[in-house]
Each structure stands twice: as structure tokens, then as C-alpha cells.
Write a structure and sequence with these properties.
Blueprint (H helix, E strand, L loop, with lengths): L12 E2 L2 E2 L11 H14 L10 H5 L5 E5 L5 H9 L4 E5 L3 H14 L4 E4 L3 H8 L5 E7 L17 H10 E11 L2 H12 L4 E3 L15 H8 L5 E7 L1
Parallel strand pairs: 3-4, 3-6, 4-5, 6-7
Antiparallel strand pairs: 1-2, 7-9, 8-9
Helix pairs in contact: 1-4, 3-4
This protein binds S-adenosylmethionine.
Length: 234
């Protein structure tokens, strides 16, 4: 399950590297716009290039999981409802997705999610304190199938170094993808980090908290594979 990738131009200049996303077209629905208006002030955390106080942002001190690229927020809302004792800091650059997750927050009465509508790489670099995260979820990141676009993939050594700064000891990184070459890359990149240990031998069984979304179900029906990778910080 991957969203369309544009053929060109692939490289949008970025001050600190190459972006892992393109701004996709897509309209915010009336329902999503209403959710943004009603719930945005409470649940949107504006991006600022300064360290954020997570306890203040969530109104409580609790273990915080960072989700990068939540899409329309289907898995996010499911997991946040399943784990009310955890805080979920969720980054997405696609405005309709932000509206969709806010709508779910309203419908499901979730209080443990905060959304940053911004590039997660900058959020990691500029906003998050050292050792502030108990976990990181990266579900179906843009696969960037073509060889010349592979450099835009999120899960690469410099990005993992950024994650490791923000992750506390015992914290985990959970990635999932339906694109096998990227799954292999995830495994290799994470296994190469001496500060991480694989929780499985190779690919991990899907942790129960990660739901099968409708895209994934469709993929499975079509015979496509999905790979989970779960590493823990030593
Ligand atoms: C293929 S979609 C998967 C969405 C969702 N995780 C799912 O499983 O349905 C990848 C998402 O990651 C977002 N994304 C990619 N790079 C990002 C970044 N650096 N910061 C925040 N979001 C990003 C994209 O906008 C897109 O919505």
C-alpha cells in the first residue's frame, strides 16, 4: 500500500537534505475541516524550532511514542485507543490526513494524541529532547520504488542516528512496509546500529497492537507481503 510517487521532479531541495515526501494533492473534506476548526487548538502542536516540553503538550507525564507519517490516521487512532497510558506524538505533512486524524480523535474521544503537521525529520532535530521517546512507529513509509528515488527513503543511517538521540534506553523502533526491498533495507540499516538490538530473528511477527488497515487487507488478499521490523535501544 503506497501512495503514488511522482516521476519527476523528484528532488525538492531541502535545507538539511532531501525530503522523504512530496506534497500530495487531495482536498480536505468538510468533516475534516470542521474537526480542524473544533479540535485543532487542543490537539495540534505547532512546529517550532525549539525544544518542546512534552509533559506540558500532553497535559501529563507519560511515555511518548512518535509516529511518523500517519497517513489518514487509521492505525494511529486504533493504537492510541488501545494504549491510553501512552502519549502519541504524530507527524504528518498531508493536511487531509491531519483533518482525518482529528476527526477520529473527536469520534473516539481520544485524549492521548498530539499532531505536528510538519516534516518529522525537523521535529526530531529541533523539537524533541534527548531520550524523550519510549518508541517510534513508522508504518508503510513512502517506499520510493525507483532506484533513483531510493535516497528519499526515510529509514537510512543518518535518520536512525536522529531517532537514537531522541529514544530512551529500552525504547523501540517499529517499522512496517509492504515493499520487500525497503523491508530488507530497514533490517540492514537498523541491524548496523550497535545501540540497537533486534527483538526478533530477522523480521518480526506483526505486534498485536498494529492493526491490519484496509489497504493492508487488500494487499494481503492480492497475495502481497508485509514485513515488520522491531528493534530496541540498548
Ligand atoms: C505511504 S503513506 C502511509 C501512511 C500510513 N502510515 C499508513 O500506513 O496508511 C506515508 C505517509 O508518510 C508521510 N510522510 C513522509 N515523510 C514524512 C515526514 N518526513 N514527516 C511527516 N510525514 C511524512 C506522507 O505524507 C504519507 O502520508
Amino acid at each position: 500500500m503506497s501512495f503514488d510517487e511522482p516521476d519527476a521532479p523528484a528532488s525538492v531541495p531541502h535545507p538539511r537534505g532531501i525530503r522523504s515526501y512530496v506534497r500530495r494533492a487531495g482536498r480536505t473534506t468538510v468533516g475534516q475541516a470542521k474537526a480542524i476548526e473544533a479540535l485543532g487548538p487542543q490537539y495540534l502542536l505547532p512546529y517550532r524550532p525549539e525544544t518542546v516540553d512534552l509533559a506540558q503538550a500532553f497535559g501529563r507525564d507519560a511515555p511518548t511514542i512518535l509516529e511518523i507519517g500517519f497517513g489518514m490516521g487509521e492505525a494511529t487512532a486504533h493504537i492510541a485507543a488501545l494504549m491510553p497510558e501512552q502519549n502519541f506524538l504524530c507527524c504528518e505533512v498531508h493536511p487531509p490526513g491531519v483533518g482525518a486524524l482529528l476527526k477520529r480523535i473527536g469520534e473516539q474521544g481520544l485524549s492521548n494524541i498530539r499532531i505536528v503537521e510538519h516534516d518529522a525529520v525537523e521535529v526530531l532535530d529541533r523539537m524533541l529532547p534527548e531520550a524523550s521517546l519510549a518508541g517510534v512507529h513508522i508504518f508503510f513509509p513512502d517506499p520510493w520504488h525507483k532506484a533513483r528515488h531510493n535516497k528519499r527513503r526515510l529509514v537510512q543511517p543518518p535518520f536512525v542516528t536522529k531517532l537514537l538521540r531522541c529514544l530512551r534506553g529500552g525504547g523501540y523502533i517499529h517499522c512496517a512496509t509492504d515493499w520487500e526491498p525497503y523491508a530488507v533495507q530497514m533490517l540492514e540499516v537498523l541491524a548496523a546500529q550497535p545501540a540497537l538490538r533486534n527483538t526478533a530473528e530477522g523480521f518480526a511477527p506483526r505486534p498485536e497492537y498494529r492493526p491490519l488497515t484496509k489497504f493492508e487487507n487488500r494487499g494481503i488478499r492480492l497475495g502481497h507481503g508485509v514485513w515488520d521490523v522491531v528493534f530496541e535501544k540498548l
